[in-house]
């Protein structure tokens, strides 16, 4: 939270919800993660082109936890304006499990990642209405060592 900016009570609550979402992701508490979304809420993984709704909103957390069991989301900045919350962060971990993607699976490389990411949340009634995740996929793939030969790195799911 930026101490130089005075937030409304609603904005403070919205920031708390988003920070709780990250805490649930860090502990891979999929039920708690999903509970922070509205019934009609969704998670859009922009780089993968996948939209998750309903109970499936926690699927990306599960996918990344399997691929990077030591995954840590380092929050760099959080900006809150009304019902909009913007978070700049990095995804950090070691690729020790299969990374399931829409086009196939990247098997463990053992490489560490520190991929930049920007998350955009819209909240209604202290719950997440939409979550758009913009992971720098090209940087992530380069760090995994698969960018130059992505098609060879993918196996059919």
Outline the structure in words.
The chain has 157 residues and is an alpha+beta fold. It has a single domain (9-155), classed as Nuclear Transport Factor 2, Chain: A. The chain is built from five helices and nine strands. The chain has helices at 9-26, 30-35, 59-67, 137-144, 150-153, and strands at residues 37-45, 50-53, 72-81, 84-94, 99-101, 104-106, 112-124, 127-135, 154-155. The strands form two sheets. A six-stranded mixed beta sheet has the order 2-1-8-7-4-3. A hairpin with a 2-residue loop joins strand 3 and strand 4. The longest helix has 18 residues, at 9-26. The protein is elongated, with a radius of gyration of 16 Å.
What's the layout of helices and strands?
Blueprint: H1 9-26, H2 30-35, E1 37-45, E2 50-53, H3 59-67, E3 72-81, E4 84-94, E5 99-101, E6 104-106, E7 112-124, E8 127-135, H4 137-144, H5 150-153, E9 154-155
Parallel strand pairs: 1-8
Antiparallel strand pairs: 1-2, 3-4, 4-7, 5-6, 6-9, 7-8
């Amino acid at each position: 939270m930026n101490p130089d900016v005075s937030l409304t009570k609603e904005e403070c609550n919205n920031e708390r919800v988003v920070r709780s979402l990250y805490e649930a992701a860090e502990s891979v508490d999929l039920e708690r993660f999903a509970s922070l979304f509205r019934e009609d809420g969704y998670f859009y993984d922009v780089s993968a082109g996948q939209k998750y709704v309903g109970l499936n909103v926690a699927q990306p957390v599960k996918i990344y936890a399997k691929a990077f069991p030591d995954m840590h989301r380092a929050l760099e900045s959080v900006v809150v304006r009304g019902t909009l919350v913007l978070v700049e962060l990095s995804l950090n971990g070691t690729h020790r499990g299969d990374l399931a993607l829409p086009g196939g699976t990247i098997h463990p490389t053992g490489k560490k990642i520190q991929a930049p990411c920007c998350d955009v949340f819209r909240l209604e009634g202290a719950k997440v209405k939409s979550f758009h995740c913009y992971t720098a996929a090209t940087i992530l793939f380069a760090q995994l060592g698969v960018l130059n030969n992505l098609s060879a790195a993918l196996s059919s799911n």
